[in-house]
Amino acid sequence: MTKFNELFEQSIQNYLNKFPDSSLKKAIAYALSGTGKRLRPQLMLSLIASRGLSPESFYSLALALECVHTYSLVHDDLPAMDDDSMRRGKPTVHIAFDEATAILVGDALLTDAFSLISEHTSLSPDQKVQLITTLSNAIGSRGMVLGQVLDIASEGKNVSLNELEEMNQLKTGKLLEASILFGAIVANESSFEDYKMLAHHLGLLYQLQDDLLETLEEATVLGKSKSDTVRNKPTTVTYLGLEKAQELEKDYHQKIRQSLFKLDLEHTLFSTLIETIIQRSY
Ligand code: GRG
Known about the structure:
- By secondary structure, this protein is an all-alpha fold.
- The chain has a single domain (2-278), classed as Orthogonal Bundle (Farnesyl Diphosphate Synthase).
- Helices cover 71% and strands 1% of the residues.
- It is built from 15 helices and 2 strands.
- It has helices at 3-17, 23-32, 39-50, 59-76, 93-96, 99-118, 125-139, 144-154, 161-186, 193-216, 219-222, 227-230, 236-240, 242-262, 269-278; strands at residues 86-87, 90-91.
- It has a two-stranded antiparallel sheet.
- β1 (86-87) and β2 (90-91) form a beta hairpin.
- α4 (59-76) packs antiparallel against α9.
- The longest helix has 26 residues, at 161-186.
- It starts with a helix and ends with a helix.
- It binds geranylgeranyl diphosphate.
- Geranylgeranyl diphosphate is lined by residues 36-37, 39, 69, 72-73, 75-76, 88, 144-145, 148, 171-172, 206-207, 210.
- Geranylgeranyl diphosphate binds at residues 36-37, 39, 69, 72-73, 75-76, 88, 144-145, 148, 171-172, 206-207, 210.
């Protein structure tokens, strides 16, 4: 186990230890476990480390990001949304438990994310307000939830490339952006524009990779159902075709590397993580 995995699993345990024993606790532990890549926590913590701070005291903040991400997956998998039966290499929460439990697991994870931020002991009140504002703007009615609404409305429809980009940026990009901004806020950065530009292209790349993987890989390799294909959802790949989508992917790689250069983050832990994302195959 890497040091990151060990400390991150420990932060999940610390969080779960505060719960009374209940079916909710079991279901939350189940939702947080499995083959999740922990990408959002890693983005935040590797940025903090690359700016010269020790990441150890910020694992509970990184967990807040993973809680929000896990909530979005658990709700996205529900029969009323994507109706998926497999996630992180195992049955989805509503299959392993039931629908009411899955809804409540999501509600609890989303709410607890904000207490993980407000209860942090070494951040200033100003930083906490900045983090809470950043996260709520990213995932609420102007962010991820709006992206999900647009995604559901797009089923079986013809949408333009711009509309697809906007939807992907909201649904997938906003929480990735918040994860990078969390790192920048903790590192006391004063300007966020270049981080936002990096996050913009990373979000678009991540969703495009997801669409390409859904086209090219088996569900067993991905560890999750291929519901977009089944539900006839338009994606950048179905819009552009495979070859042009792969060209666009390369264009995003270039833009991301330009941002890393501008932010003076080349040859750091953060840029190593970004390169791993660029090369990802699941
Ligand atoms: C339910 C409000 C609400 C929002 C759901 C994130 C989301 C919005 C839906 C997930 C649909 C999806 C598969 C999007 C593609 C990109 C993406 C976010 C993939 C899953 O994230 P990973 O690859 O997953 O980081 P792991 O399991 O590794 O954490």
